[in-house]
Amino acid sequence: MKGIKIFSPATIANLVCGFDIIGLSLDFPNDEIFLYKSNNPGIHIQQIHGSSLPQDPNKNVAFIALQALLKTYKKKHKIEKYKKIGFTLELIKNILPGSGIGSSAASAAGVVFGANILLGKPFNKMQLIRFAMEGERIASGTFHADNVAPAIMGGVTLVRSYHPLDITKLPSPKELWVSIIHPQIEIKTSDAREILKKKILMKDAIRQWGNIGALIAGLYQENYELISRSLEDVIVEPIRSMLIPAFYELKKKCKEIGALGGGISGSGPSVFMLSKGNHTAQKVTDMMNRVYSSLRIDYKTYTSPINQRGIKWNKI
Ligand code: HSE
Measured from the CB, is residue 267 less than 6 Å from ligand 1? Predict the structure, then answer.
């Protein structure tokens, strides 16, 4: 196989209470990536559509992630084979950088997933996540996996530990749907992390880990009410919400019409809401539209089920 087309999904990190440890994969939007193996050694970014991402390889998350994969491949397969390997890639960015729905993760995870297939699958998913995290580090300044893990593994994922990396997939109730609003303002993850407190109170930690545990129990039990009660963040949201126009109004109005709950998607500015069933999720998305149509801010909305497969691909 010489080339593949990859559909790399948007993801929602944190899922309100699980800062840096829980993430969820969406069916759409997706970045589209065309990846070809070539005899021209190295990584060649042909074109990036839809966004002005850095072409400079050292600042490009896709390049960095792919380079991390190739370095390990080189060690495994001796230098002679590595020397002849080249990749050409073309990226269609449907997930805008700074949106909070895993734009850099989609690029990083997509390319390493695709390269692994073109190389005959020498790596497992955990290794791919590690390579993709190298790309994430360039984008956000930290080594976090709560976007790349759900992109690669699909569904809802939990990072138990970063050192060593220990990630597991959680079940998700079939009727869980997601509404997302992406206000067209850019918040850099690195900035949204900079403003967070470095220390937290014990009482807040207790409340937060109670919510995380209960959220996971709710996912296993398909208990929508427990999920709803657990969607509370007393640590990160009170600070980051200041960056998002009409955040609390959005949350209140969506819950009034049946959303289970929600909050900031990743580091924002996107806001997401979970609902039971497509019908309620559509109503919630309509409500998001209504709240934002009175503000002078452009926005986009999406309604999506949870994507159990993660990255999808086909031969070209
Ligand atoms: N967990 C990360 C954060 C996700 O909230 O900073 C960034 O997309």
Answer: yes
CB of 147 sitting under 6 A from ligand 1: yes
Q: How far does the centroid of ligand 1 lie from the alpha carbon of residue 105, in Å?
A: 11
Consecutive H or E run containing 13: strand 3-13
CA of 26 to the centre of ligand 1 (A): 16
Last residue in a domain, options 170, 191, 216? 170
User: With a 6 A CB cut-off, is 14 part of the ligand 1 pocket?
Assistant: yes
pLDDT digits (tens, 9 = 90+) for 34-84: 999 988 888 888 888 887 666 677 778 999 999 999 999 988 776 565 567
Dist. CA 96–CA 140, nearest whole Å? 15
Calpha distance 138→245 (Å, rounded) = 27
Residue at 51 is within a domain? yes
Q: Domain containing 61: what range?
A: 3-170
**pTM (global) more than 0.90:** yes
Integer Cα distance of 96 and 247 in angstroms: 20
